[in-house]
Amino acid sequence: MTEDFVQTEAVQTLLDKASGISEDGGNDRLQTITRDLVEGIMKIIVRHDINESEFWQAIGFLQGGADEYGLIVPAVGLEHFMDLVMDARDAEAGKSGGTPRTIEGPLYVEGAPIVEGDANLTSDPDDTDTLYMTGQVTGPDGEPVKGALLHVWHANSKGFYSHFDPTGEQTPFNNRRRLKLGDDGRYQFHSKMPAGYACPPDGPTDQLMKMLGRHGNRPAHVHFFVEAPGYRTLTTQINFGDDPFAKDDFAFGTREGLLPMPNRQGDSAMIAFDFQLQRAAAPSETDFSARQRAHA
Ligand code: DHB
Ligand code: FE
């Protein structure tokens, strides 16, 4: 049996009906995408000779893994793929330059405190080194960006994020702040050093990684959104260049230009990192994606 089976009249009629494409009503774009998606799955079933038990195992995994889709998507490279797609679309549209984007990941929480000046991100005790970060947000011509809001979030020294911490030990918004920057676009904060992150042991993502012969580790990292009037909202992160997983991130979030080496001295580590934004070519570019995000 070959994939031509999917081209038979019976299967093609099934696809037309199942996707609603032959109906008057419904969303045209969704009908077309649904048809392509289901047809793609059908071809994979035939190409790999997937039997009924394997098919239901896969459906069971998807059901059981639903809570962790936000983790599975980066783990299988799809969130990074979206970055590659957006980069390529930008290149086609002649938009280039500035700090590279990279994955948001699933662990942002909306509504973090807005703070000004030299900010401390860490509310909870954490017996580890202190990270000091400084830099400036500029535009394409090196001009300081006015009115920027820098969202920062990272894990604690156990690799756990507040709001998602399985130990329940962290207070809301620990290691999460929104820094309101002045007209010079400069920022400065300190916090307790994050450790590398591992996907939850024995959860669906971890199980999948093990079955693929992979690990579920990320290097220590700090996430950012940078938003400012007239500029394109940037989603990015820095990963620590001296972390053992710096070149082996299971979520594919590490990128050239986003791997600074912390300057470690005694019990502190310094990172200087500047952000360069693109100018917004349309008002919609100052928006955030419509992704569903947690709120505390
Ligand atoms: C995942 C976790 C992260 O902290 C992150 O930044 C990206 C992905 C994950 O669990 O898949
Ligand atoms: Fe993260």
Automatic annotation (TrEMBL):
<feature type="domain" description="Catechol dioxygenase N-terminal">
    <location>
        <begin position="27"/>
        <end position="94"/>
    </location>
</feature>
<feature type="domain" description="Intradiol ring-cleavage dioxygenases">
    <location>
        <begin position="103"/>
        <end position="278"/>
    </location>
</feature>
<dbReference type="Pfam" id="PF00775">
    <property type="entry name" value="Dioxygenase_C"/>
</dbReference>
<dbReference type="InterPro" id="IPR015889">
    <property type="entry name" value="Intradiol_dOase_core"/>
</dbReference>
<comment type="similarity">
    <text>Belongs to the intradiol ring-cleavage dioxygenase family.</text>
</comment>
<dbReference type="Pfam" id="PF04444">
    <property type="entry name" value="Dioxygenase_N"/>
</dbReference>
<dbReference type="GO" id="GO:0018576">
    <property type="term" value="F:catechol 1,2-dioxygenase activity"/>
</dbReference>
<dbReference type="GO" id="GO:0009712">
    <property type="term" value="P:catechol-containing compound metabolic process"/>
</dbReference>
<keyword id="KW-0408">Iron</keyword>
<dbReference type="GO" id="GO:0008199">
    <property type="term" value="F:ferric iron binding"/>
</dbReference>
<dbReference type="InterPro" id="IPR050770">
    <property type="entry name" value="Intradiol_RC_Dioxygenase"/>
</dbReference>
<dbReference type="InterPro" id="IPR007535">
    <property type="entry name" value="Catechol_dOase_N"/>
</dbReference>
<keyword id="KW-0223">Dioxygenase</keyword>
<keyword id="KW-0560">Oxidoreductase</keyword>
<keyword id="KW-0479">Metal-binding</keyword>
<protein>
    <submittedName>
        <fullName>Catechol 1,2-dioxygenase</fullName>
    </submittedName>
</protein>
<dbReference type="InterPro" id="IPR000627">
    <property type="entry name" value="Intradiol_dOase_C"/>
</dbReference>
